[in-house]
Amino acid sequence: MTWAAGDDRTMSIAIIGGTGDEGFGLALRLAKAGEDVMIGSRAAERGHAAAERGAEILGLGSGAGTRGSLGGTSNEEAAAGSDVVFVTVPYAGQADIYRSIKEALRPDAIVCDTTTPLATAVGRPAWQVVTPWEGSAAEQAKALLPKQTRLVSGFQTVSGHLLQDLERDMQGDVLLCGADAEAKSAIGSLAEKIHHLRWVDAGPLSMARIVEPLTAVLVSVNRSYGIKVAGISLTGRDRWGTP
Amino acid sequence: MTWAAGDDRTMSIAIIGGTGDEGFGLALRLAKAGEDVMIGSRAAERGHAAAERGAEILGLGSGAGTRGSLGGTSNEEAAAGSDVVFVTVPYAGQADIYRSIKEALRPDAIVCDTTTPLATAVGRPAWQVVTPWEGSAAEQAKALLPKQTRLVSGFQTVSGHLLQDLERDMQGDVLLCGADAEAKSAIGSLAEKIHHLRWVDAGPLSMARIVEPLTAVLVSVNRSYGIKVAGISLTGRDRWGTP
Q1: Do A235 and B234 touch (CB under 8 A)?
Q2: Facing residue for A237 by CB, picked from B129, B227, B240
Q3: B19-to-A194, B39, B60, B119 alpha-carbon distances in Å
Q4: CA end-to-end distance (rounded Å), chain A
Q5: How far is CA B189 from the centre of its chain?
Q6: Which pLDDT value is given to residue A10?
């Protein structure tokens, strides 16, 4: 069954690499918003441990509740069981991760890639980037995924630190790139379930070439101003979302 | 005499390519804020005509007033007479313009390059960019300028349309890149004289590789949402400016 914008049915969500800052923060915020989230990790037991830690932070009971749920397993199993799959892994491991989950993905899955090709992948600073052969990490993901996978790129400007700090409201906008407008709206609707988060349609997948490196600018800004939560917001309209 | 941050003395300002949307808008806003601005153009008479048009829009008298002044001349003369030189020309003409003004620039001039290497330079859309050999238009400018010129890159995310619409408040932030912290603060102070405009230190000049292409994202966003004034604002701090 394909999820469509405006659909009220809850989507099952996997966070691949959900033990990292961005992935774990996203899992916390989405589960807090009432979603059912499965944290994937290379080792199932680490996924499980992260889910237990998250459930404790959120005060989730073991049964189903009104506040969503958190589970943990391997990346492959998480991918296989989900309508929406966030991939939140460092660039150095991105290709391997896609190779490992692509057989498991549902044919109609929506994949949201959050990777930035930070130069840390090659032992250089996080305020520098490298250029993937395809132009962006998102386009590299596209090259590795089955043709029918509905790919969206986003969340590169959303602070993993802030996502995990549940006492603070989110700030800034999620910039989404991709060819599939409905898939962007689906990911955008999930973003909007996180209090104070908005989303902006930044254009086709190739725009990720410009959006992804913003992570490096935000790392630079964080360093200069001694903060950890710099983000980006669009100005020029009061409301964004589906154009 | 070198201008320093915190200096109350008014700086003389040149806008090279000041007849274009971004340059003319910047000239209007800075003159409105009380600055003395010289609009440069390839042909002195066009610079002069733009200044007359601007003075009429602003209701500036022919004499000196409290609301700044607007003059017009050739790019070379404007550059020769100014402490601060904004270069607001399309990428296709950027190299030629720098070659034409570099002899004229004062040794201690602060140059603020606002160029984005939009693909329009090669007959492709404004929501795409080309990559300059040096990495960014700002670094190309550095390669063409005398070594001692104090170069700052900025204003690529500030809508030329909004700058010219004096009835509306500005929105968004000016992201400044460059090696010279004091020069960034000087340009930042000028930006702040424009009501509602803030500035953020985005790091060294090489960060312009990431900041410049944001113009193309904003062009894409403008098209998608049917607006002309999309901009970028940083979140994570209430105040920015000098770090």
Answers
A1: no
A2: B227
A3: 45, 7, 18, 21
A4: 25
A5: 13
A6: 72
